[in-house]
Amino acid sequence: MGKQYIRFDEIEDVLTSVDLLALVTPLVKSSPSQWKWIIIGAQNGLQGAMVSVLGGTSSVDVLDKKSRRLVLAWHENREGPYPKERLAEFDVLLKRCHEAGLLKLKEAEEKDLLRLHNEFRNTFSHFMPMSWSIEKAGLPRIVCTALDCIEKLMSSDKVRYKMSGNRTRRLFRGIEAARGSFR
User: Which residue, 52, 49, 27, is CA-closest to 149?
Assistant: First the structure.
């Protein structure tokens, strides 16, 4: 593609999130505001891992119900323009991973991951004029749960065949570096 382009796919999306976590987690002790980027990176990495493992060949399993229905109907008759695709919500992707047996979460872990997305990531991504104080005590646990899920999903046979040795090493080095910052 040349040097004038940056190439992304669903796996690179996960890798860049893990890279960010590996870079930023060591900074959080001296700069607590870096938690923002840790939260965003952990949520984005997990969402990307869910997309990677659920994507399959047609990618319909990552779409919301309406998009899924429209895309499948289009593939059946190939009439009209291709429908606009819309990614399923985070909680729907998490549920699909659970139903497919790709993730087995305890109730507290699922609650942590939904909180990571709904409360923390959404508030940072759609920040309103306000003052916000977050208790730091549970954040390492929540982020480590996300890292565990990323590792499990990206280790799935549904994903591993798409990853080169370099990408695999990069993923696991990044996960280990991020986890190491919380020990």
Answer: 49
